[in-house]
Structures are given as structure tokens and as C-alpha cells.
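Hello,

I think I submitted the NA7 job twice by accident. Can you confirm which output corresponds to this input? Input:
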Amino acid sequence: MGSASESINTEVLIIGGGFGGIYALHQLRDKLGLQTVLVEAGSDFGGVWYWNRYPGARVDSEAPFYQLSVHEVWKDWNFTQRFPDDAELRRYFAHADRVLNLRKDAVFNTVIEGVSWADGRWTANTTDGRQFKCKYLILATGSSYKKHYPDFPNMRSYKGELIHAADMPRHKELDFKSKRVAVIGNGSTGLQIVQELAREETCQLTSYIRTPNIAFPMDQRVRTEEEENAAKSFYEALFTASKTCKGGFPYNQMHKSWAECDDAERLARLEELWNRGGFGFLIGNYKEMLLDKEVNAFIYDFWVRRVRSRMRDGPKRDIVAPLKQAQFIGTKRPGIEHDYYEALDRPNVEIVNLLETPIQTFTEEGIDGRQYDMVFLATGYDALTGSLLDLQIRDKNGVLLQDKWKKGTFTWLGLGIDGMPNMFMVYSPQAPTSLSNGPPIIEIQVDWIRDAIEKMQRDNIDNIEPRFEAADKWRQGIQDLNNKTLYPLANSWYMGANVPGKPREQLVYLAGVDVYNKACREALQDWNGFEVTYKA
Ligand code: NA7
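Support: Only one job matched these inputs. Its output is below.
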């Protein structure tokens, strides 16, 4: 649907076609019966899985928890790997689209730029001159949409293939045989690219590393159809547990504190978590890990010994797994790896330690005198807030969001912004978002939005709008809790520290999915923190 120069009126406009957008479309259209339109910049659904097609791309959150809890969707869908790859996730989105009949209300290849509110309606302009008008606006623009391109000198003079990992060519296969490839960055993305490309022995790979990734083992394995079908009997319990625990995954909890255990018990528990693989090592670990430097050092020591035992090349080992702890484990987003450390160890892989030799300049042929056929920028995103600011959205007084948030991010419950009536965010800053599991936290937020709109309609309410005082308090609560943890000590994107000029603040709600859900639900009871306007 949709063609140039038209203006589309709808009750609900959703921006973004990832998990947040499709779940919101399903809930608001199919459960509330509202006229709903979803716009998406890409040519299909999938969100990050539409854009991320780099070699080795794979989700770090495991099946079966990384999916929507919508029965019609999960009953006939089986993931084939514990950590599905990008192509399988796109097939999942296509399945959800078919089952829920989503596409008929979606407009693809549509980038919104310029959003404003007047006379009780939002207007969203597209970059190609179209217009959407709505009463309820839902921003499901994702945490990792706006790509971060560091300002490396002369980068644009490079004549080879310069590819941000989220911008892989979609219509041609890249051939890595006998190619000289540089990968800059080793967050989750750089790790996966290096891990994958290192397998191609004729590919000469150079990994540029500034902060080593403290990655945890994946323990990847095939999920058979029998296993999936057997697990389906318990899916609902698992989905519910994901929403009622702290971390968004139904992992076992550590029932003893660090102080209650001796070293032998601590090591045994670490070993157990390590061997199971996945985020359990972070989420099911001692909570003191992210609170106490000594506990963190103990766990780092456990980590570094395991990782070093997998590498033979001494200098490489000292760069990626130094015996002397240089960062607190878990305070930057850990990668989840399969054979990353073995990959780095291979003779076709070289590491440039950017702490010792930072990039001086790109040239036409490569970087600092080295020649490359391809350079991957695995340099991340202007995470959590970048995609919202890019909308060029103004509040009811005409103030741009970037001006409102110049000194810091202010939301009420991570769901709304003062001065922006009937506007709701999904997978947003100041919610558990990146320290949780995507689908359950998205469902918690969208279910809230659905219930809020239903209550508005039932109670004859025209507009709800967060109060700034509530947002200010919400932000302060997040920063206060953050200051009791080790998170502020890392230059992470959780802290907004990866993008020059971005305010340094904790962007993720840290108290847990369970507490977050409770706070949101309480506010819904009496509209606490909202200005409410009833219909005349
Ligand atoms: P991340 O996690 O932001 O990682 C970006 C990487 O790029 C990281 O290693 C950075 O090093 C490096 N980087 C960024 N800017 C520079 C400059 N200027 N110089 C050198 N190195 C740089 O992004 P990902 O795409 O890996 O992951 C994003 C999320 O997607 C991930 O967390 C999951 O949620 C999925 P640094 O650590 O800043 O020293």
C-alpha cells in the first residue's frame, strides 16, 4: 500500500518493522481493532535481522526464548539451531507475516523524517514527500538502527569495499577467497565476522581491536524437530518466566550470595554456567559480579584462564585475554562465541592492537600502509537513542527531541516523552531493552501500550502525556542505581560512551524486567506520571 505524494490517515502509525513493530501491529490491529499502518525503512520485516547480513551474523539470545509468545506463530515454527543465524531469523519473520497477515498493513522502503503534533494528531513525513497522520504514534525504531561511522582520517578516500556490517550488499555475494580483509571493531558483530571469515584459509584477515571483547561460550548446537516439539509443551511457562524474572531469560538464578560461598563452590558454579553456554554466564551469575570489583576480578580470572588455554599464539593471547584485568567483565556487552579464540589464533588472522597503534589514516588502498580488498566497519551504532533522534520529531511546542535531550535522555518508563501526547516507544532507552531479551521486553511494552489505549477509549480520554517531573525522577532512579554498579566505569554504548558528543548516562533500566513491568503496570492503574486530557 502507499504511493508517492499521498497522505494516509490512520488511527495508529507504527514506525519500524522488527519484533516491536510486528507485535504492535498484531496487538493494536487484531486485538484492539484499531486501524493501523506500519512503516518500515527496509523492503521487508525483520528489523536488525533485515539489515544485519554480514558473514557469521547470528543472534546471541537463544532459542526458544528469542521469539514472540504468540501461539499462532510459535505453534508451527521450529528453530533449527540453539542460536539461529540471520537467514533463519528472516524466515521466522516471513512465517510470522504469513500467519498474522501483517504485510497488508505495511508500507516498506519508507523512511520517516520530520514528525510533529498539532490538533490532536501526529504527522509523519517521509523522505520522499509522503505523509502519514495518526492519533497514536508508536516508535519501534530499535536500539541498533543508526550506524556509527567513526571519523577515521581519509576513510572516504579508500577505493576498496568499505562496508558497515549492517549495510551488507543485498544483491551480490561477496567472495572472501584470497582476499585481504580488515575488520574494525570486535563487539558482538566484529567477533562474529572474524570467527566466520577466519575459516576461509585463503582469506588474509586483520582484526583491529581497541577493547578486547570478554566473550562467553555459545555451546551452539542443532535443535531437532523432536526437541522443539517436546519443548512446546512448556513454551508458555518459559515465556511467562521470561517476563517475570530479572533478565528476560528463564535462566536458573543464583540462590546464594557471593559471601555465602567459598572459593571451591564459586568456581564450581562458574564452571557449571560456563559449560552450559550462552548468556547464563552473565544473567545467572552472582549478582555481585557487576557490583563488586573483587568479585568481578575473581570471575575475570576464571574467564581469562579458560580463554588463554584455547590460544597458542602468545602475543595475540596477550591482546585479547590479558592476565592483568583491564576492564570489568560484563560491563560492556559480552559477545557469545563459538570458536572465536581459535579463529584469532589461526595463521591467516592478524591482530592490530589499536591501544598501541591507533589508526592514523585510510589510504586509497587500505589503512596505514596495509592494503585491503575490503574493510568491514563493525563499529556499532548510535544505540538506543540514535534512531529516535533521526526521526526529527518535535514535541507539541515544536521543540526537537535532540534539543530536549541535549543534556540527557528523559522518558517516563521508557514508554513516553513529556510534550509528546499519545506517543509510545518500544525497545526504548530507559527500559530493560539491551540488558534483557528482546521479544519478552517488547511484549511487556506493547501489551502496556495496548492496554493504555484501550483504557483511554473506555474512559473517554483524548490524550495522555508524560509529565516531565516523572521522567526526571525515572532518569534519576536509573542513574542512582547505575552508580552503585560497575557499569559507569566502562566506555560502553549502554553509557552512551561510544559516540563522540553523546551525553554520558546509563541508557538502560537496570532494576530488572520484573520490577520494570510492575512499575509500568502501577502507572497504568491511575495514570501516575501522566497528564490526562478527557474528551470534551
Ligand atoms: P559495538 O558493541 O558497539 O562494538 C563496536 C566495536 O567497534 C567495538 O569493538 C569498539 O571498540 C569498536 N570501535 C568503535 N569505534 C571505534 C573507533 N573509533 N576506533 C576503534 N574501534 C572502534 O557494536 P556491535 O555491532 O558489535 O554490537 C552492537 C549490538 O548488536 C550488540 O551489542 C548486540 O546487541 C547486537 P571499543 O569497545 O569502543 O573500544
